[in-house]
Amino acid sequence: MPLSNGHIVAGDPNWWKQAVVYQIYPRSFADANGDGIGDLKGITSRIPYLKDLGVDAIWLSPFYPSPLKDGGYDVSDYRDVDPRIGTLEDFEEMTSACKDANIKVIIDIVPNHCSDEHPWFQDALNSLPGSKERGRFHFRDGLGPDKSQPPADWMATFGGPMWTPTGKNDGQFYLHMYDAAQPDLNWSNPEVREDFLKTFRFWGDRGVSGFRIDVATGNMKDLSDLTIPWDELKQRRANKSKPGNEHIDHPLFDRDENFELYRTWRQVFNEYDPPLTAVAEAFVSPSRKRHYASPEGLGQVFSFDILLSNFDIKNYQQSIERQIKEAKEDKSSTTWVFSNHDMIRHHTRYGLPDIDPSNLFTFRKGFLKFLETDGKEPAVDWPTGLRRGRAATLMILALPGSTYIYQGEELGLPEAAAIPEDQLQDPYFFRHGRSDKGRDGCRVPIPWTKTGVNFGFGSGKPAHLPQPQDFGEFSVEAELPDPSSTLNMYRKALSLRRDLQTKEEMSWFDHGLGNQVLAFERPNGWLTMINGGKTCVPLPKGEVLLSSADLDDEDLPGETTVWIKRS
Ligand code: NOJ
């Protein structure tokens, strides 16, 4: 099958393989009705901006009805729109405007858990132990003479216990891997399976092109042995993610039964022409990743290893090699990503001291520690962060595969580190005894104008998370007229990439400049060189197409990437 190039052709089943996907966190993108919360009409109004930016697709984080106990990842109705965000008609208006602009729409599906306000969970709470209604979730009797102790000592990802009592005096507890407001669904139950197929078709029929699958490793569970201590489960999970140990059994994480489930989803995705795509959120070892990425399964998996890297040329090279090799073997394509709604924004990360990148949670937390400064200005080396962030971004945009851009990163937006505690929303903060500020700093509404109410995000009530005072400097209005702005670098890069990226191949380029430099070539003489050191190196011959910072005559300055066209 032919590969898509940068110009997406309607009907091409491979369009996603080299697409630039722009992640929208709907509540924080654009607020058309002035209630302080971003909405679908806001997104529609900004489609010309996205078209000019040059993205191929947008991925919407959850916009469904939700009590917002986890930023919308607690869904109370999978087949509707949160009234604070809009209506189904608004959704149709948005997809049709995207279609006109040749932008595909991908939406987030949250199958591992729903909201405790989902009618199914409410029915379950109001039904007896052992009932059909409780069978859609994981309810178990508590331990001890009065059944008041949880059935296991397991801990939720957001902190605190993973089992919560029903509050109905019936001695039962329910399982939730995240917040207590996010009960886990029982995927061994055929009714749950059927209902999600209905959800996929519901959105497929409304013109979406694909799905991002939240916690794709979690759905299938084996709860036959609740005596396994939590410390052991944590250890098993850590070991299972290491190559060679994939056979380790874990009751909650990365079970083989998931692959059979995804084959049933794939059959539904393939009912559409072109087939619907899916990208899995899965932190697993390469030999496991393969199953999620398989064309008979979801098709693509987020690769987080380049995100989980400090600004380090050697690490980048290893990660690139690994990811490209894996994607080829899996008949999939790579997914480059530096920022998303769960991670400290990369332009800020790169201005902080390095962190051990081996674990996602400690990685994020480690950076957060540097940003928590009791009201004082955090010690971010901002010029370095921005410079490195831009260089790293130009590197991934030149690589084969798809790239995910998180709203605001094209403006070089920094993490909003100083949100007052009484305005934080992330359950991570609450369930960690307020010791971890959580992920709100990357979810602050983005600035569109230099000044004015909410910096143009919306003209009514204050933005639902407060914007830092200097946000106007990073606004679209401030950056558009400035040829050297980060926004213009992204725009130029995406536009060039459309023409340059015709084939998937890449090869390392022998530069002879030592280990501070990484260079690779794509077909048609498109050469990318990254200088990861602090000192200048000579530029290779050819026409300079774009650079992440000003060039120095014949030299490539430190922490800079350049795109060159070699004749
Ligand atoms: C991963 C999502 O990216 C994150 O935002 C969410 O909190 C958890 N899954 C739980 O749904």
Automatic annotation (TrEMBL):
UniProt superkingdom: Eukaryota
Cited InterPro entries: GH, GH13_cat_dom, O16G_dom_2
UniProt KW Zinc keyword: no
Single Gene Ontology MF annotation: sucrose alpha-glucosidase activity
One Pfam family cited in the UniProt record for this chain: Alpha-amylase
Domain (Glycosyl hydrolase family 13 catalytic) ranges: 23-443
Biological process (GO), any one: sucrose catabolic process
Keywords associated with the record: Maltose metabolism
Entry similarity comment: Belongs to the glycosyl hydrolase 13 family.
Protein name: Glycosyl hydrolase family 13 catalytic domain-containing protein
